[in-house]
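sorry for the late reply, my laptop died twice this morning and i had to redo everyting from scratch. anyway the thing you sent over, i finally got around to it. pasting the sequence first so we're on the same page, its 389 residues, then the predicted structure underneath. double check i copied it right bc i was rushing
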Amino acid sequence: MISKKCTGCGMELQFEDEKKEGYVPEEKFIMEGDLLCQRCFKIKNYGKNSVNNFKSEDYSKEVLNSVKKSDIILPIFDIIDFEGSFTEEILDYLRDYRSIVLVNKTDLLPGFVHPTEIADWIKDRLAEEDIVPENIAFISAKSKYGINGVIRKIKSIFPDKKVKAVVLGVSNVGKSSVINLLLGKNKITTSKYSGTTLKSINNKIPDTNITITDTPGLIPKEKRLSDMISVETGLKLVPAGEISRKTFKLEEGQVFMFDAFCWFKVKENNIVNKTEEEIGYKPIFSAYSSKNVKFHLTKEERVEELLEGDFFELLKGEEKKKYFENEFVTFKTTVKENEDLVISGLGWINVKRGPLTIELTVPKGVKTVVRPSIFKGKNKLEKIFKIII
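ok and here's the structure:
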């Protein structure tokens, strides 16, 4: 039988079993050239997804096989959810293969952040992992910013050679959207659903010697909060425009709530030999997340009432009930001045005046990180990085 692959997800096409991946009606398989499997057709035209039987190990194996055949890899990191996309599996590839690091969604950061500031921060984070890429490219799959620059960077490294470049990243980081922009057409299936791409897909970038390979999204071993809720609600945690920012000054005992998803209580800061200025001081921080996420400051005794009521609007009904069936953990941590506390898949806070000592309550397993601030400006980055779950 003639072998054909779905141009949307990479699965080998078949017409024998409608319930298996890669199914197309027999008449289409025989008569037509470029084909979408039934699953990709429904995603693309109706926004309907069907559950596949692939596991995280299957995706990892497929990515490994493609990377082994590559000349260069193009890992994509989401600057808005950097910790959720900055996984050990991807870092291992970066240590072993030549790379151009693509940083997506930089256009969603606040306007006061200069690109060189972000570039230095990224380089420092990679250096901490003993990684030195060939180059770093800032891109936006939404505005198409920086896409042509990626092609130029590949050509500058391989000026007179046929090149195979493999794009990789965690699920929903925007790989397929970026590749469609590089190809100049919407050839690969994109959707709001995790795991849309099932197999590696090779395409030649027009008027170049570059073959670009899309790979399945890798599943992070540490959870993103957005993975613990429905696809529709999770999309509301992804900023559609510039990320929302609001600044707070807290007193000991107050509770800050990231909508109904997680919250923390301010504890006493144990500053030794306090100066007169430090006596009675209040920590100041800015919170960053999607504009759909409601920031709220309250008293500890009101937290349960707010969670049970309808003050917060993103989680409702059965989804809200299911979310709070998760086991929650509470732990104490201190965030210093010019450090960020990140809740992967939700947002972060940047401490402007600290230290800020808190008791944080989050669903168990969600990746929670204290890192050098992304907005430190001219201050030198500390070479200290803590994972606190």
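The two ends are 52 Å apart (CA to CA).
thats about all i looked at so far, will dig more tmrw
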